[in-house]
Amino acid sequence: QVQPVESGGGVVQAGGSLRLTCVASGSIFSLYTVGWYRQAPGNQRELVARMTRGGDTNYVDSVKGRFTISRDNTKNTVYLQMTSLKPEDTAVYYCNLNNPFRSRDYWGQGTLVTVSS
Questions:
Q1: Would you give the DSSP letter of residue 42?
Q2: Pairing with 11, which of 35, 83, 91, 94 sits 20 to 30 Å away (CA)?
Q3: Closest by alpha carbon to 34, among 75, 64, 1, 79?
């Protein structure tokens, strides 16, 4: 069973910081590609940050230099450290785990980040 659960969202002023946490069940977490996606009202869900099992990362251009994805395989946990937050970062953020062998995706329930101006 794989069930990601996000936490850490909230309301923050522009320029502030938040750290999102995603904890997942399962025994092969270290083999997954992990990622954070976000969805703002009226928009499609977009990839924010992703990390492979080998540690390679990708970020959407709008968050480069501000957000950092990391993982702790001993805790089955993914983090998204967000700094210099902007109002346009406001969205529901979702944790995603991808099993490359089964080609399956597992999604968390989402955590809301609101950045006030």
A1: T
A2: 35
A3: 79
Q: Which tokens belong to 35?
A: 């990622």
Nearest Cα residue to 6 out of 47, 51, 36, 28:
36
Q: What residue type is 95 in one-letter code?
A: C
φ and ψ of 88, to 5 deg: -70, -5
Rounded Cα–Cα distance for residues 85 and 79 (Å): 16
For residue 26, what are the CA distances in angstroms to 15, 42, 76, 84, 112? 36, 33, 8, 33, 25
SS3 30: helix
pLDDT of residue 111: 98
Q: Find where tokens 């980040």 sit.
A: 113
